[in-house]
Specification:
single chain, 161 residues, alpha+beta, Alpha-Beta Plaits, Multidrug-efflux Transporter Regulator, Chain: A, Domain 2, 2 domains, two-stranded antiparallel ribbon, 6 helices, 21% strand
Length: 161
């Protein structure tokens, strides 16, 4: 079994006592979650879940949350949508180094899903690109990160339809 770290963001019905969600989540198998109540009406749930595959970890977490809070709506799974700063942070590089990689390998760079300030990409595409241009190494990109980035992308794409 491997450990997979990921975050799920849900839109939830308003409840006067926010601790109600904590108890419901714990009672429904989410004893491996850190709950963030940042914005009213949303829960950001940071999981560190053991499973054989990332697919199993992420999908079981979604199932557990929906059992606990049936009216919750999945908004986003991460790590998936990332900026240059996010990529640098996840991989332990400086933003300048990532930007230089982008500029020197522009013709191979995956197409951003949003061009702006900042531009954003799917992390799974960036990880595969880094592997292809031979700029990744085992210390920075674990197999579990590859798996988690791929499944969170799939979840985000499928939840939009």
């Amino acid at each position: 079994m491997k450990n997979y770290d990921f975050e799920l963001i849900f839109k939830v019905p308003n409840v006067e006592d926010i601790s109600t969600y904590s108890n419901l989540l714990f009672e429904n198998g989410c004893d491996d979650v850190t709950i963030n109540f940042g914005q009213l009406g949303f829960l950001a749930l940071s999981f560190s879940r053991e499973a054989i595959r990332a697919n199993e970890a992420v999908k079981s977490a979604i199932k557990n949350v929906l059992q606990a809070i049936p009216n919750a709506k999945l908004i986003e799974a991460s790590p998936d949508i990332v900026s240059i700063s996010d990529i640098a942070s996840i991989l332990g590089y400086s933003s300048q180094y990532i930007r230089k990689l982008f500029e020197t390998n522009l013709s191979y760079l995956p197409t951003p899903i949003h061009i702006g300030n900042p531009s954003i990409w799917h992390l799974s595409e960036i990880l595969n690109w880094l592997k292809d241009i031979k700029k990744s190494n085992k210390q920075n990109i674990s197999d579990s990160l590859f798996e988690t980035a791929s499944i969170t992308r799939e979840v985000n794409i499928s939840s939009k339809f």
